[in-house]
Design brief:
- The complex is a heterodimer.
- Helix content of chain A is 80%, strand content 0%.
- Chain A is mainly alpha-helical.
- In chain A, helix 2 runs parallel beside helix 10 and helix 4 crosses helix 5.
- Chain A is elongated, with a radius of gyration of 21 Å.
- The N and C termini of chain A lie far apart (48 Å).
- Chain B has a single domain, classed as MetI-like (MetI-like fold).
- The N and C termini of chain B lie far apart (45 Å).
- Chain B contains ten helices and no strands.
- The longest helix of chain B has 40 residues.
- By secondary structure, chain B is mostly helical.
- The chains are: A mainly alpha, B mainly alpha.
- Chains A and B meet through helix 1, helix 3, helix 4, helix 5 and helix 8 of A and helix 1, helix 3, helix 4, helix 8 and helix 9 of B.
């Protein structure tokens, strides 16, 4: 027990590295917010493009979404981080992590929003078009709001899952929570910074996990 | 263009990397064969716990699920692999991956099974009990089969997530596919081995992604 406390909850180590972990938390939060905003916006835009049912547009979107949903994000991150400099594209590790996770979230968001668009009753389209609205107006002001409402629970779950992946940044040296903690752990030769990191993640994400449970109950389709 | 081909699709380097990457693929599949059944089983136990009549069992199950859904799997893995030795517990990469993924997967599988259990109408259980089946028999033969059928697409898509998750094992130097590809990359300074690994992941997972999409459409209609 003594050893355990000394190694995992060492007061001196905890006090010393808390500011560093907090700095890491700032990076994690900033990345998460940027990824969620950009990823959902891009995914929704792609799903809308698909609604026009133009094969030349839909096909590349479907292929992109399939690839980015099937590949492990860590593979994509390493590919971009180590591959791009060789062809003259130099990006910071922060940018690489932001770009890849945004593209991954957008791929999932596209599929989820598209499912919502196709699940919107046909009568909604027809009624809106018959009042003289254009296709684009119908999509943006009648169908999309209903579709988005329907897919809030899966979209929230996916957004949480992807933002948790910001921890992967540690592998390419992003100074996020986990990155700071592993550095601190090797400097202090003590596991307490890792405890601190785990606690920080739970504090950050637990409210969202609990909120998603509530959202699921709130937006559950009637009868389910 | 020439540079992109040279740096990402270099066939010579891919050919050299292939044996090692294939060996890595074997390890990836081995990890999957261990952690998917374990996670599904653990998930089932916690799902049943989360809908139990006993309040304490229910709360402990839900707390477990939420806690491990809130912790990034890489954090868990590093905590186990790099942290536990400080407490005098030497642990092999494979054991760390098994334990870490068990905790993470159980939480995710539990949430899916739970949704399935809740989707089965109460009358089914009551009808089964009234025919004289015990509670356990009702769960096993009446409620569970219907629950699993209702969430089959989610279960499958979680299996895809777990296969993707195994790439994290590379961080603790377990020689799975990404680790093997990364190794060859670091000695050739060329990204082609990673493209090769990506291609194999696609080969493995793309059919599953398609099957899930089809399932989801059928259930939606």
């Amino acid at each position: 027990m003594e050893v355990f406390l000394d190694q995992f909850l060492n007061p001196a180590v905890l006090a010393k590295y808390t500011p560093l972990i907090l700095k890491g938390a700032g990076v994690t939060v900033l990345l998460s917010v940027l990824i969620v905003l950009a990823g959902i916006a891009l995914g929704t835009a792609l799903a809308c493009l698909r609604a026009y049912r133009i094969a030349a547009l839909s096909l590349p979107i479907v292929i992109y979404a399939d690839i980015f949903r099937a590949l492990p994000p860590l593979v994509l991150i390493l590919l971009a981080y180590f591959g791009l400099p060789n062809v003259g594209v130099l990006l910071s590790s922060f940018t690489v992590l932001f770009l890849i996770l945004t593209l991954v979230l957008a791929a999932f968001a596209e599929e989820i929003v598209w499912a919502g668009i196709t699940a919107t009753p046909k009568g909604q389209w027809e009624a809106a078009r018959s009042t003289g609205l254009t296709f684009t107006w119908t999509l943006g002001h009648v169908v999309l709001p209903q579709a988005l409402r329907m897919v809030i629970p899966p979209l929230t779950n996916r957004a949480i899952a992807i933002t948790k992946m910001t921890a992967l940044g540690m592998v390419i040296g992003v100074p996020d929570i986990l990155g700071q903690a592993t550095t601190a752990q090797s400097f202090s030769a003590n596991a307490s910074p890792l405890t601190l990191a785990a606690v920080a993640y739970v504090i950050l994400f637990l409210p969202f996990v609990i909120a998603s449970r509530w959202l699921e109950a709130r937006f559950a389709p009637p009868g389910a | 263009m020439e540079a992109i081909l040279q740096q990402f699709f270099n066939l010579d380097i891919m050919a050299k990397a292939l044996p090692l990457v294939l060996k890595g693929l074997g390890v990836t599949l081995l990890i999957c064969a261990v952690v998917i059944p374990l996670g599904a089983l653990g998930g089932l136990v916690f799902a049943i716990g989360s809908v139990a009549k006993n309040r304490a069992v229910r709360w402990v199950s839900i707390a477990f699920v939420d806690l491990f859904r809130a912790t990034p799997p890489l954090v868990l893995l590093i905590f186990i692999y790099a942290g536990l030795p400080f407490a005098g517990l030497k642990i092999s990469p494979f054991a760390a991956v098994t334990v870490g993924f068990f905790l993470n997967n159980s939480a995710y599988f539990a949430e899916i099974f739970r949704a399935g259990l809740l989707s089965v109408p109460k009358g089914q259980g009551e009808a089964a009990r009234s025919t004289g089946l015990t509670g356990a028999q009702t769960l096993l033969w009446v409620t569970l089969p219907q629950a699993v059928r209702n969430v089959l697409p989610d279960l499958l898509s979680n299996v895809v997530e777990v296969v993707k998750l195994t790439s994290l094992a590379s961080v603790v130097s377990l020689g799975e596919m990404l680790h093997a590809a990364g190794l060859v990359r670091s000695v050739t300074y060329n990204a082609s081995p990673l493209v090769l690994a990506a291609g194999l992941y696609l080969l493995l997972l793309w059919p599953l992604v398609r099957v899930i999409a089809r399932f989801e459409r059928r259930i939606a209609s």
